[in-house]
Specification:
The complex is a heterodimer of chains A (666) and B (128). Chain A is an all-alpha fold and 666 residues long. Chain A has 20 helices and two strands. The model of chain A has no long low-confidence stretch (mean pLDDT 90). The chains are: A mainly alpha (666), B mainly alpha (128). Chain B: Pfam families: COX4_pro (PF03626).
Chain lengths: 666, 128
């Protein structure tokens, strides 16, 4: 009846996951009770859960990423403490639990923190920057988000029901095959990634289509803000690379469920094929994450330097070059697997070549700052911090791209330090910069600068205190994923790293405090003009938060830095149109399709993991029925009458006029 | 939303957005495509079993026929043309082909060289 599921699935003998699970459960129940008692449920349902508004979906993506960041961060804290104490002892985490923690940490941080964070920011900002009213497929967007949330839910469910994979974040066979991992851990891993992978692919198709097909009048490709370009490149990579991941995991699942032999040791399976395929996805994935961050830094650096981006066209070229070259370097993840010198040399050289466009970008940012009037607001701090950190990470990356050096350093703590250096220093700093920069746009008030700067400095310093010791430990020969060790020379570095982790944790607390303090002082921090940073691109041309239709009129774009141009023109020739002719606007209706689909996907995923076949069929039928109902809908748009558009737009126009006239007098 | 998509549709067509042709011409296009596709399929089956051609050339012939088949599908069913209204589709196709070429070609090359750093097993066997 319930497949493999029985009471033994709940780890009553392990206090850590049980207590953690209980705390999370109490928190969720508390929030739910508060929502129901206060009567917020209808509001949540109609304004958020069923919303197809790209801004709302973007915010929900970022919320999901933030919550998962806390989960993945707790895993990181536990690992650092374990390695600090586990010198010639077992530490406090038994091996099978420690193995689950590092697997869950990697899986969560990449798939459920970094991915939703960048996709959320792209969703929130790209339609605004392009001057359009929504993404190309609004309901599909909602489906994509909820499927991602399903994946995150399944991963976290494994904490209390069953177990998570003990195989590392990429579940390499033969360890992940049935003979070595008979439990449900790998199934949790694979099914949650399969389901959230569908969500990611959907988001990718949606954003590519949005950039290619929906741009406002005059928004040529070479007038798009840099963030739109990096979004295009990143989502092209999603569309091209995620099917590889899906196919690879599907083969692994066939091995596990139906006795196939794709990656088994026996019967003609080839383990190396899995490494090859998973990294053919895995390396583009790195650029899927970091390219949007590059776009965010381009926007931030140019805005806070008060200058147009230096070398815009070279930046576009560099972005597209990275987009293509990222598909030519994946072997550098397994130089040591046995390929001969000719193969290793070619992929090593390709890996070094991809550093060139990245270097071009760094110089472009530096030259953008050169001679500019720089304001060191929090987003700019993250951007400058990124440049310092990312250059170090990039240089150790070029070092690892040299095959002989890689033979010494592969799978060592040096590697661990390297990829945290680029992912934290690149993607996470970028996500935080974007969060600080666009928060006023999404919510209509700024974030507290004092707490923001504290958060930056603690995170920045904490990062170096944590990861420089890991570089050194790697040089001293420490390999990754060690549950305990007997080498005295590594111990001090592990202790320093644990201290660094504490500093990083203070940074996270500052970030939370910043949010709390800002929400409390929101009236004082209110941004009425919609343009708190003196911005340059179109998202600042509408109010904060933007109305549901984004722009009362589709803006006309005459050059790069569209909004900057408009501001200059407005100052020179008094003010634009005095009495604009408002028109009715059609917007897509909200739809519960995404949420209902994801509900059935969760049921189906859970049933597949536990081999509850009747439930699998039920979930599948439910999801398909939801799709059919949506496909047969009668009307999918509603009309906002011209008077309402006018009423909403006038308030913003007044504020903006007073801003422009003030700037004129200064 | 609608005003933008209409403004764009005259110079850049999305897949599924057809240019306005009469039903007759469109049906004719599909029929021609179907006949060509069937012809190519039949030829492939014929070539595979025949001894009328030099045997080692059969795989090459099959590859050529397969590529021709893809071309027929692209032109007659997916409506890829070289016109200016099709830039996005052609670029998407080119990017797709490039990625497939890199991943498949790279994989074949990598997997063929995986044993390069292994000790030569056959010689070790002979020594024992």
């Amino acid at each position: 009846m319930l497949g493999k599921l029985d009471w033994s699935a709940i780890p009553f003998d392990q206090p850590i996951p049980l207590v953690a699970g209980a705390v999370v459960l109490v928190a969720i129940l508390g929030v739910l009770t508060w929502v129901v008692v206060k009567g917020h449920l209808p509001y949540l349902w109609s304004e958020w859960i069923t919303s197809v508004d790209h801004k709302r979906i973007g915010v929900m993506y970022i919320l999901l990423a933030s919550v998962m960041l806390l989960r993945g961060g707790s895993d990181a804290i536990m690992m650092r403490i374990q390695q600090a104490v586990a010198y010639q002892s077992q530490g406090y985490l038994p091996p099978e639990h420690y193995n689950q923690i590092f697997s869950a940490h990697g899986t969560i941080m990449i798939f459920f923190v970094a991915m939703p964070f960048v996709i959320g920011l792209m969703n929130l900002i790209v339609p605004l920057q392009l001057g359009v009213r929504d993404v190309a497929f609004p309901t599909l967007n909602s489906v994509g988000f909820w499927l991602t949330a399903t994946g995150a839910l399944l991963v976290n469910l494994s904490l209390v029901i069953g177990e998570f994979a003990r195989t590392g974040w990429l579940a390499f066979p033969p360890l992940s095959e049935l003979s070595y991992s008979p439990g449900v851990g790998v199934d949790y891993y694979a099914w949650s990634l399969q389901i959230s992978g569908v969500g990611t692919l959907v988001a990718g198709i949606n954003l590519v289509t949005t950039v290619l097909k929906l741009r406002t009048r005059g928004m040529n490709y070479l007038r798009m803000p840099m963030f739109c370009w990096t979004t295009l490149a990143s989502n092209l990579l999603i569309v091209a690379a995620f099917p590889i991941l899906t196919a690879t995991l599907a083969m692994l699942l066939l091995d596990r469920y139906l006795g196939f032999h794709f990656f088994t040791n026996e019967a003609g399976g080839n383990v190396m094929m899995f490494m090859n395929l998973i990294w053919a996805w895995g390396h583009p994935e790195v650029y899927i994450l970091v390219l949007p961050a590059f776009g965010i830094f381009s926007e931030v650096v140019s805005t806070f330097s008060g200058k147009a981006l230096f070398g815009y066209r070279s930046m576009v070229l560099a972005t597209m070059a990275i987009c293509v070259i990222s598909f030519m370097v994946w072997l550098h993840h397994f130089f040591t697997m046995g390929a001969g010198p000719d193969v290793n040399a070619i992929f090593g050289i390709a890996s070094m070549i991809i550093a060139v466009p990245t270097g071009v970008k760094i110089y472009n940012w530096l030259f953008t700052m050169y001679g500019g009037r720089i304001r060191f607001a929090t987003p700019m701090l993250w951007a400058v911090g990124f440049m310092v950190t990312f250059i170090i990470g990039g240089l150790t990356g070029v070092l690892l791209a040299v095959p002989p050096a890689d033979f010494m350093l592969h799978n060592s703590m040096f590697l661990v330090a390297h990829f945290h250096n680029v992912i934290i220093g690149g993607v996470l700093f970028g996500a935080f910069a974007g969060f600080e920069y666009w928060f006023p746009k999404a919510f209509g008030f700024r974030l507290d600068e004092r707490w923001g700067k504290l958060a930056f400095w603690f995170t920045f310093l904490g990062f170096f205190i944590t990861f420089i010791p890991l570089y050194i430990a790697g040089m001293l020969g420490m390999t990754r994923r060690m549950q305990h060790y007997d080498v005295a020379a590594w111990r001090p570095w592990m202790i320093v790293a644990a201290i660094g982790m504490a500093v990083l944790t203070i940074g996270v607390i500052c970030q939370i405090m910043q949010l709390v303090v800002s929400i409390r002082n929101r009236e004082a921090l209110r941004d009425r003009t919609g343009d708190p940073w003196d911005g340059r691109s179109l998202e600042w041309a509408t109010s904060s938060p933007p109305p549901v239709f984004n722009f009362a009129f589709n803006p006309d774009v005459r050059g790069e830095d569209a909004y900057w141009d408009m501001k200059i023109h407005a100052q020179q020739q008094s003010l634009e149109r005095d009495r604009p002719e408002y028109q009715d606007i059609e917007m897509p209706r909200n739809s519960p399709t995404g949420f209902v689909c994801a509900f059935f996907a969760t049921v189906m995923g859970f049933a597949l993991i536990w081999h509850i076949w009747w439930m699998v069929i039920l979930g599948g039928l439910g999801a398909f029925a939801t799709f059919v109902v949506f496909a047969w809908r009668d009307h999918d748009e509603y009309v906002i009458p011209a008077e309402e558009v006018a009423a909403i737009d006038r308030i913003n126009l007044e504020e903006r006029r007073s801003l422009v006239s003030m700037a004129g007098t200064v | 939303m609608s005003d933008q998509s209409h403004a764009r549709s005259d110079h850049d067509l999305a897949p599924g957005e057809e240019e306005q042709h009469s039903v007759g011409t469109r049906i004719l296009g599909y029929v021609v495509g179907l006949v060509l596709a069937l012809l190519l399929t039949a030829t492939s089956f014929f070539i595979a079993g025949t001894d009328l051609v030099w045997q080692p050339s059969i795989p090459v012939a099959l590859i050529v026929l397969a590529i021709a088949q893809m071309g027929v599908h692209l032109v007659f069913f997916l409506h890829i043309t070289t016109g200016p209204d099709n830039t996005n589709n052609v670029l998407a196709l080119a990017f797709g082909l490039l990625v497939v070429f890199l991943v498949v070609g790279g994989t074949v090359w990598i997997m063929a060289h995986l044993n390069a750093n292994m000790p030569p097993m056959d010689q070790i066997m002979r020594m024992q």
